[in-house]
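Lecture notes, part 5. Sequence design as translation. It can be helpful to think of inverse folding as translation between two languages: the language of shapes and the language of residues. The source text, in structure tokens, appears below.
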């Protein structure tokens, strides 16, 4: 959201945010329009919520349809009179009722999809350790049967009821255009009944653009570093355990894992490394800004070992920005990001043997540098802020 906001403001547009109050928010004069979050201003994730009756009622309301959120956005539109409403995320934290608020006020609606929430109750098409599309092929009852949402029967029922209600009132028919970061998601939406003319593929853009003036950065990026790198959230669907098991076999190769290792799967992964006396895997904790950039520059290649349908992960584009080839599981949008043996390697998800072989292929310095250069080529074109801006404004202008 902040990247999009900055990009639009750089081109002279006025941008008015609408969100929930949070202790972590950046200050803004527009927070007078914001609504209270579900579990309090310090809560971020579902597990942070205290499950009081009031919290449960609000959680259900936000999932299904929140008149409170609708009224708040109507007030902001009435006072500020925007030309278009661009929804980056509304499920659970806010409510799809924001769509009806914009429609009632006569403002065009564009919605960017960061995940698969319009098709899958769990958002990621993952059940257990395998990709699953039963809900779109058989019906949403599959979600309830398998308790897919948070492992909870109640949460699964609420989510399924919300999706059925949204279909019943045709709320997504009021969205004028959808934006998908990956062609994979665009294809999935069209396969499941969304009109092709309403679904636009606009790739995520990279924020820092390396130019010839950044000579030191470019030179550093073209050198083969001395460790493989994973950076991102340490969650089960990222399948980092398969990555660790591959490096367990490669004692003379180094792996660095960057991400908050105090939550999600972090503690269990660290325990596995300790229990198996794995000395070549380092947990660096959460990093951002220049610290993260320096770590990416110093890496040899990056790895995304996901077992779920990814939707244009930022970590892949960050890797390309710094001339780093990518080893990725051959699933979801990752298959369209990696041209095998050209800018990295693809492997079968959860296949330790194949992943180990791909890591060993990265021992060739010349190949690593060559693939890194190939990985960087689309950064200044396909994944550039200007290309993103032009495509987005093409949609906005047509609707306005």
């Amino acid at each position: 959201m902040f990247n999009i906001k900055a990009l639009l403001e750089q081109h002279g547009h006025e941008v008015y945010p609408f969100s929930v109050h949070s202790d972590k928010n950046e200050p803004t004069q527009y927070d007078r329009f914001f609504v209270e979050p579900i579990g309090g201003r310090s809560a971020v994730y579902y597990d942070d919520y205290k499950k009081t009756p009031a919290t449960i009622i609000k959680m259900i309301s936000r999932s299904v349809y929140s008149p409170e959120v609708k009224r708040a956005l109507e007030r902001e539109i009435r006072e500020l009179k925007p030309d278009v409403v661009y929804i980056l995320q509304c499920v659970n934290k806010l409510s799809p009722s924001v769509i009806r608020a914009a429609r009632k006020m006569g403002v065009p609606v564009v919605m960017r999809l960061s995940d698969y929430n319009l098709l899958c109750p769990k958002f990621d098409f993952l059940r257990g350790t395998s990709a699953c599309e039963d809900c779109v092929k058989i019906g949403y009852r599959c979600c309830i049967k398998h308790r897919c949402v948070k492992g909870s029967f109640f949460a699964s029922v609420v989510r399924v009821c919300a999706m059925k209600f949204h279909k019943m009132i045709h709320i997504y028919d009021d969205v004028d255009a959808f934006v998908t970061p990956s062609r994979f998601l665009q294809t999935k939406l069209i396969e499941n009944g969304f009109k092709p003319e309403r679904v636009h593929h606009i790739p995520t853009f990279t924020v820092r653009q390396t130019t010839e003036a950044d000579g030191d950065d470019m030179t550093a990026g073209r050198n083969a570093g001395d460790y493989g790198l994973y950076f991102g959230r340490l969650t089960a669907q990222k399948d980092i355990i398969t990555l660790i098991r591959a490096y367990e076999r490669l004692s003379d190769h180094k792996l660095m894992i960057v991400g908050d290792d105090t939550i999600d799967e972090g503690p269990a992964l660290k325990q596995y490394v300790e229990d198996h006396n794995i000395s070549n895997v380092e947990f660096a904790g959460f990093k951002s800004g220049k610290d993260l950039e320096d770590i990416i520059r110093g890496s040899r290649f990056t790895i995304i070992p996901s077992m779920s349908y990814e939707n244009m992960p930022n970590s892949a584009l960050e890797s390309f920005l710094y001339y780093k080839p990518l080893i990725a599981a051959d699933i979801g949008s990752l298959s369209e990001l990696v041209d095998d043996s050209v800018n990295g390697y693809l492997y079968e998800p959860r296949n330790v043997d194949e992943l180990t072989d791909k890591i060993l292929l990265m021992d060739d310095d010349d190949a690593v540098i060559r693939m890194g250069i190939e990985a960087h080529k689309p950064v200044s074109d396909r994944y550039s802020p200007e290309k993103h801006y032009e495509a987005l404004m093409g949609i906005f202008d047509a609707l306005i």
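The translated text above is only one of many valid answers, since several sequences can fold into similar shapes. The chain is about 40% helix and 10% strand.
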